[in-house]
Amino acid sequence: MAVSAPRRAAEGITTFAAEALRIAAILVVLLALIWLYRRDPFTLNILAYTFLFASLASAWNIIGGFGGQFSLGHGVFFAIGAYVTANLYIHLGLSPWISLIPAAGLAAGAAVLVSWPTFRLKGPFFAIATMALNEVAFVLANYSDTLTGGPRGLSVPFKAGLANMIFASRLSYALLMLGFLAVCLLVCAYAYRSRLGYYLQAVQIDEDAARAAGIRVLRVKLTGMAMSAALTGIGGAIFAMYLRFVDPPTLLSLPDVGVKFALIALIGGVGMLYGPLAGALLIVPLEFQLRAGLGASVPGGNLLVLGVILVLCALFLKRGIVGTAVMLWDRARRRFW
Amino acid sequence: MSGLLNIIVVGLLLGGIYGLISMGLNLIFGVIRIVNFAHGELVMLGMYGAYMCYFLLGMDPYASLVIVVPAMFVFGVLIQRFVLQPLQGEPMMQIFATFGLLLIFQNAVLAITRGVGYTAPSALSSIVVDVGGIKISLVRLIALVAVSAAALFLSWFVKNTMLGKAVRAVTQDRRAARLMGIHVEWAFMLTFGAGAALAGLAGTLIAPIYTMSPQIGGNFILAAFAVVVLGGLGSVWGAYIGGFLIGVTEAVAGYYLDPSLKTAIWFAIFIGMLIVRPSGLFGVVGAEEIGLREQD
């Protein structure tokens, strides 16, 4: 499993504080983007989705990228967060802000429970097992009528208000998603630049060597997975309140959810802190444009183009956008300085 | 009693189809170590190939085998050469690329057919055989015979021909195989071609049974992965028997429990198997580790 991250010269390690400054700068730019389009609901919707998927792909990146565990089952944690929040809101009237806690907790708990056995598997086996997990969850979500509403799904009644996390304007949602992105990026930066992050990266590069060096591999992987799943659960909760409707296909479809997190991270640069953000900024708006432009005239035309992009990215952009940019930058620097 | 027997026969017939699809997937997975997400779509392309032969040339699906199977072989070789070979040694990127291929195949067919469902009728479609009071449709029986023939041929081929031995050597140790003068890339191209040809065979044989849709591959792919893991990586007979096990489990669970839960049950078996014995029922223990080591 040698997905060799581009090795940068050891000229000083970026600390969490420095990383936090970079994140603040990025957030300011994204905030300016929202402000620029503040009167355009169509674009705001795209921005909201972009930030949400950037957050989710970043969350996936903690275990999938830093830890090298290619999970295709993150849709399960996404769905747990969404169903928990929707149920607590519909039946108990609980504010979604409060249900973020059980959403994150249950998603993390479920993640630890299912990862305990599946972490014995490596490489493609882990990917297949997590994919199968996603399919089991799909079948169960369709089946258990009382919790998920089965195939009919759950509808959240519209009652605007900050406490309900339901807003009339798209602008508020875009800001909400940006806030979530800020949380995710900070957690990722912490996970990347902390002891845990280095452990995870050691496991990703060589599990046996990491174990020999005294790293408790299973515990490190489970911690990374729990963090990743907790954020994914929160993402599911926010998504449920944004769409105000959840059903098995929207939460557990492999191409639209579980696999998409991984794809966005891969296109942007897997295992790199800002890779998923770059991937989402490219892919999500592109998908919207394609769906609007091509999807109507040629059935499946938008997905056809997306498929071609994926294959081309795999072939010619192996390190993703950020990885390639870093590589080109390093090369240029060596040349001219 | 005859009820249970009936269910088992239904399961065996279904298992034959699963086995046929899994065999190609297993060959690719076992030898090249690629998780070919697009395998269900290769089956789907086989089905549409059979339909095209019927529509353009008026051929019976069984006659169109002579066109579809070689065409799929060439197609598979081209995929391996131009998409997957450049990604050798990067399993994540390969998963990514086959997923892209899945989207391309599915939506190209959707764009061309505009989602109209087709069937390729065969002269044999309506014939029903009566075996001891149990009615079996002939086309499903043919699929069952075909999977047995394919398993026999494949196991003979890898054991007794030089090409088959080369493929087995590459499976066991790429570097050593290369040192023995085996052209590893050619062996991979041959393997992927054979896997695609088997998918084409499966697609053609089920063309008279199922109504075609661009998404039909999704119905088979996860079942096929389950079969591969259950039966054992790279094991021809593992895929053969695993197909029947999954087919019968699905039929029995669908009848006695709830049809909507059948998939959950064989996924549970599948995940359990992956954890208890990742090499599968008939795989060589430790075989699953091969290819995860650094090789070139």
Describe the protein.
- The complex is a heterodimer of chains A (337) and B (296).
- With 337 residues, chain A is mainly alpha-helical.
- Chain A has one domain (16-254).
- Chain A is 76% helix and 1% strand.
- Chain A contains 15 helices and 2 strands.
- Chain A has helices at 16-36, 41-66, 74-92, 96-118, 123-143, 145-148, 170-193, 195-205, 207-212, 217-243, 248-252, 254-268, 275-295, 301-316, 320-336; strands spanning 154-155, 245-246.
- Chain A has a two-stranded antiparallel ribbon.
- Chain A starts with 15 loop residues before the first helix and ends with a helix.
- Chain B has a single domain, classed as ABC transporter involved in vitamin B12 uptake, BtuC.
- In chain B, helix 1 (2-32) packs antiparallel against helix 10.
- Chain B is mainly alpha-helical.
- A two-stranded antiparallel ribbon of chain B has the order 1-2.
- Chain B is globular and about 60 Å long.
- At the A-B interface, helix 5, helix 12 and helix 14 of A face helix 4, helix 9 and helix 11 of B.
